[in-house]
Every structure is written in C-alpha cells, then in structure tokens.
Input
Amino acid sequence: MSSETKDSRLHSGAPAACGPPLSDVARFSLSIGRLFMEFGESARMIHEEILAMAHCLGCDSAEVYCQHAAIIVTLRRGQEFCVQMGKVGEHGVNLRGSEVVKNIVRRVSEGDLACSVGQAQLDNIQRAIPSYPVWLVCLCTGLACSAFGRLLGADWLSFFPVLVASGVGQWIRRALLVRKRNPFITTGIVSFVSAYLAGFGSRLLGSSHLEIATVSAVLLLVPGVPVLNVQTDVIEGKPNLAAARGLRVMYILLFMTLGLVAAQRLILQGI
Amino acid sequence: MNSFWIHIIHQAIFGGIAAAGFGILFNCPPRIILYCISSGAMALAIRTACQLANLNLPESAFFAALAVATAERLLQRFQQTRGSIVALVGCIPMVPGSMAAKGLTNLFALLQAHPGEEIAAATNGMRNLLEVTLTLAAIGTALAIPQSIYPEKEASVKTKTLP
Output
C-alpha cells in the first residue's frame, strides 16, 4: 500500500482554524479523486489537488490511496480523524471535465466557495461540463483516423472510406457507452464495424491499401491517454494502479484486434 | 523543394490533423485546439526527421515527445490551462496503435501457422510488441522529464500554500 499512498504532514499554520466538518472534507476529496480518475488524470495530479485542498480547509495531514476501482482518503485535523472510501466509475478521457473540477477545487481552496456548495456542484457536474456536438466529435474522429491512414502510408482513395467508417464507429461507441454496455464488447463491435466499412469502401473505390485502411479505421479505439498514464504512474512509483490500468489497456487492444482480424478476414478474402 | 522536406511537411500536416481530431474526441477546450494542432505537427515532424536520420522508432518518438513537452513547459505562462494537455494530445498521434494491432495479429497468425512458419510468426509478433512497449516507455518518459525538472510557472493554489 505504501507505494500508492501519498502522505502529507502539512504545516501547522493551516489557513482555516475551524473549517467545514472533516467528514464533508473527506467526501469532497473523494468526489474530486473519483471525477479526476474518471476523466483520465494521473494519480500524481489527483494526490496534489486533494492535498492542497485539504490543507486549505485546515487539515493537518492527508493521505490518498488511489486504485483503479476505488479511492481511500484519510484526513487528520487536530484530534479529529476521518477515513472514507469511494468507488470509481468507468474510466474515460474528458479534459474539459478535469478543468471544471480543477476550477471548483480552486474556488473552494481559496474560500470563494463553501465546501458544501462545491460538493453540490461536483454532484451535478455532468450538466456543467461543456461538450462538442456529437456530429462534430464523430467527424473529427473520422478525420483523425484518415490522417493516421495517411501517416501509415495509405493512398488517397481510402481517405474518405476511413473517415466515414471511423465516424460511424465513434457514433456506435458513444451510443453503446451511454447505454452502459460492457466497454470491451463495445470495443470489439466498433472495431469490426469500422474496419469492415473502411475496407469495403476502399475496395469499392479501388484502393490498393485495404489492410492499412482497415487498421487506420480502428485507431480511434487505441487508449492513448490511459497508456501514457500507465507510464506516468510507473515512473512516479504507483505500480499497482499502473498494473491495473495496463491490464485494461491490454484487454482493449485485444478486443480491438479481434474485431479487426474478423473484418480483415472478410475484406481481404480472395485478394 | 526536395522529397525530404515534402515528406516532413506531409507528416506534420497529418500529425496536426490527427492531434486536433483526438483533441475534440477528448473534449479539449476550444481555445487550445490550435496549440494541439501545432503540438501534433511538431511531434510528427521531429519524429519523421529523426527516423530519416536513421534513428529507430522508440528513439525518434522520445526526442519528439521531449521537444513537445519542453516547448509546452516553456510556453506555459501563455496558457490558462495547467498540466500538460497540449503535449499529451500532441503525442497521441505517435502512440503506435497500428503496430500493437499488427503485433497481436501476428500472434493470432501463430495459431494457424504451418509447420516451419511458427518461428517467423512468433518473432514478428514479439518484435512488434517489443517496439510498441519501448516506444510507449520512451514517450511517457519524455513527457515526464520537463515536468519533473522545470517548475510550474503558474501560481496555483498549491504553490501558494504548500511549502
């Protein structure tokens, strides 16, 4: 446990002599950690934000234990002592979501916002996070995958089919994840559909790079940010969290490859 | 303009497009999408130049990620967002997802290999996966270096209150 735990002996000159109840601070800390994990932040960032916030709310010491599916927070203030554990939901990437959480934490730490108000804002955060229209996200994802195709050496004939296939794949992925479907099964389905559409379209247009087209169309599924978080967590001495994240990445890649191989069997047959 | 520069410009343009696409997918704030494009273009240009100079993929990815992360750190005071969003999104096009898929596909091919072909299939699969692992390690390490040795410029809450 020690490798995952960050202990902070904060200075006795804490700004708030009698802040909000310690259990409220612990609950607020858990909400911060949970949201940051779900929005794809590294463990170091989560530790730093919670420790700084706890100090500003008058805590003498704070310990945070981040795991893939749960977070434990231990706070001390004078003779008071509080330990709370919270579950973490599905991990994803939402950079504007992280920014909104950071903003709320900053305002609570600076005293502009009461802890209870901050907690209420975190509880309703989904409504506060601005997001791009679904069509734009699908279009840009398709464009990114087409660009990957060009980077991998695909010809121009496969550019448009990959764009459409990846856009459709992103739309399916979003639709399934909103309905809380299993993320690994979703990955397999999206991989198969995207690769098949890209390969079929490229074949119709006479492209000679069908293999690259099918591979490019599934690159939207590669968990790039979690992979880099695994690296960060390993480097910063959090091997358990990194191992859990790494295992998840491996399974996503495995399901992605299964869908890709199935689609390639159909598309590349007889070539 | 010779083919060297044409190739680098081509890679930079599509690296920028890929970074922007992933920036939107990751719900990146609109005001830094242009930074993401620049970061992706810079990363791919440097990686391509390094590869053309006969460096291998992990080495090239390391130098490209290090350059992007350093530039992002140096320009931090011009940004409102903390952390390394721009460098992270810029490095996403360098994550070797296609090679990971190829490596796993080669391992699947091992199951159907004819006698005598097993060694080639296994070697190809392991080689791809090893290259993926080393490239990811290189990118992750390069992204962490500037953050570790160069302090944050922005006066955040923690820098004001913590010793």
